[in-house]
Write a structure and sequence with these properties.
Elements: E1 10-13, H1 17-28, E2 35-38, H2 62-65, H3 70-75, E3 78-81, E4 86-90, E5 95-98, E6 103-105, E7 108-111, E8 115-117, E9 131-133, H4 137-143, E10 152-156, H5 160-171, E11 175-180, H6 192-203, E12 208-211, E13 215-219, E14 226-229, E15 234-236, E16 239-242, E17 246-248, H7 251-255, E18 264-265, E19 277-279, E20 284-288, E21 291-293, H8 298-312, E22 324-329, E23 332-338, E24 345-350, E25 356-362, E26 365-372, H9 375-387, H10 393-396
Parallel strand pairs: 1-2, 1-7, 2-3, 7-19, 9-16, 10-11, 10-16, 11-12, 18-20
Antiparallel strand pairs: 4-5, 5-6, 8-17, 13-14, 14-15, 20-21, 22-23, 23-26, 24-25, 25-26
Helix pairs in contact: 1-8
């Protein structure tokens, strides 16, 4: 793909981490043309991970969430259009239509439309008042008043979002029940060892975890007051938080005929099936190793956005994702390097104090690590995984072995 002229317009749809990073990186790379960043929320781009942790706990003010103050956009000549929604893309005209009736021309268009929480069906009470989701600032602000000591919350879903919400509720003195339809929490994303670790952590903090139990119905007079679980048991509840996964926002892309495959389908340089339209972040599926994946993480949003910006200015390079994630629950920081899907064996290495790390191997290949309160193990493991290096697992679990020596 040829670089666009330095004065040609770029439109970025989606003002989350990926969209912000594309716009900012383009200026860093010397693009001088108009850059318009369009977001459907009223706030400027902000961090999402603290929403279900520090912000919900009241430990972080809203302005500290912002990736940059609003002056930043004026100083860098980035037009920030908030509370706006792109309704359609005209690929022939290279034009987008915005919900206020205006249109914008583009030489390059970037879709950073993110993902949205899966909703509990209305048929089982999912639309009752008092049912919440964790995705954006408005979601957290809407539920914040519910977090009062002694109240009863049901968390539906035992992934990281659900567990983080449960941890916050427990710390604030609520009575917390978490249900997971799968046989164990974190089953989709982690090994049995990690599931066991976090189950013990939560149960030790008085979270009632029920695995292998789904939700049957929610009921109440306009507002949720009772939950019936799949095993027939009933729970009185004051409110519900659902964390049952997300779906990528692909409707805009699909509506203009772009290829979609578990997200907006892009190539190794983040180009969609229309080479002047690129995509990045939670909404984009891309080739990685021997498969196609979609990553929901801050790290991927930033790195992929950088690749998009490079492609736009003609400095194309293949995007080589280096997956990493984190989760804060109670006094535990979990740091994850790599992707554990397809692992065959897990090796356990105790760290200092109560720290511990789980090292995932597929055959002789190290593919991922979960490190709990063990930043040293995480740092070493991430460098190994990113470099495609796989130490003998017997060395990994040898506590007489300095982990850093694995890097030499």
């Amino acid at each position: 793909m040829e670089a666009i002229g330095v004065q040609e317009p770029v439109v970025v749809v989606g003002a989350g981490q990926a969209g912000f990073s594309v716009a900012s990186k383009l200026r860093d790379l010397g693009h001088e043309g108009p850059i318009t960043l369009i977001g459907d929320e009223a706030q400027p781009p902000y961090q999402r991970p603290p929403l279900s942790k520090a912000y919900l706990l009241g430990e972080m003010a809203v302005d500290r969430l912002y990736l940059r103050p609003e002056d930043f956009y004026r100083q860098r000549s980035i037009v920030l259009r908030l509370s706006s929604r792109v309704e359609s893309i005209d690929r022939a005209r290279r034009e987008v239509a915005v919900n206020d009736g205006t249109t914008l021309l583009y030489a390059r268009l970037v879709l950073a439309t993110g993902a949205r929480p899966r909703q509990l069906p209305a048929a089982i009470g999912g639309t009752l008042d008092g049912v919440y989701y964790v995705r954006n600032l408005a979601d957290i602000d809407a539920m914040a008043a519910e977090f009062k000591p002694g109240r009863r919350v049901l968390v539906v879903g035992g992934g990281y979002i659900g567990l983080e919400a449960a941890a916050v509720a427990s710390k604030l003195g609520l009575s917390v029940t978490l249900i997971e339809a799968a046989p164990r929490i974190l089953q989709r994303v982690a090994a049995q060892e990690t599931s066991d670790y976090f189950r013990r952590l939560h149960v030790g903090r008085f979270v009632d975890i029920r695995e292998g139990v789904g939700l049957k119905t929610l009921s109440g007079d306009g507002r949720v007051s009772k939950a019936i679980l799949a095993d027939g048991s009933g729970l009185p509840v004051d409110f519900v938080i659902a964390g049952i996964g997300v779906d990528p926002n692909v409707e805009l892309a699909a509506g203009c005929g772009l290829d979609v495959e578990n997200g907006i389908k892009v190539d190794e340089r983040c180009r969609t099936s229309d080479p002047v339209i690129l995509a990045a972040g939670d909404c984009a599926s891309f080739p990685w190793r021997d498969r196609r994946i979609r990553l929901e993480s801050v790290g991927n949003a930033i790195d992929q956005a950088g690749s998009v910006a490079m492609s736009i200015v003609g400095k194309e390079q293949d995007y080589d994702a280096k997956p990493w994630f984190w989760s804060d629950q109670f006094d535990v920081k979990l740091q994850i390097a790599g992707l554990s899907a397809g692992h065959e064996k897990v090796f356990v290495r105790p760290g200092p104090g109560e720290a511990i790390s789980f090292w995932y191997y597929r055959g002789a290949q190290l593919i991922a690590v979960d490190a709990m309160n063990d930043p040293r193990a995480y740092m070493v493991a991430k460098r190994l995984v990113d470099a495609g290096r796989s130490p003998d697992p017997e060395l990994v679990i040898d506590l007489a072995m300095d982990l850093k020596s694995l890097l030499s």
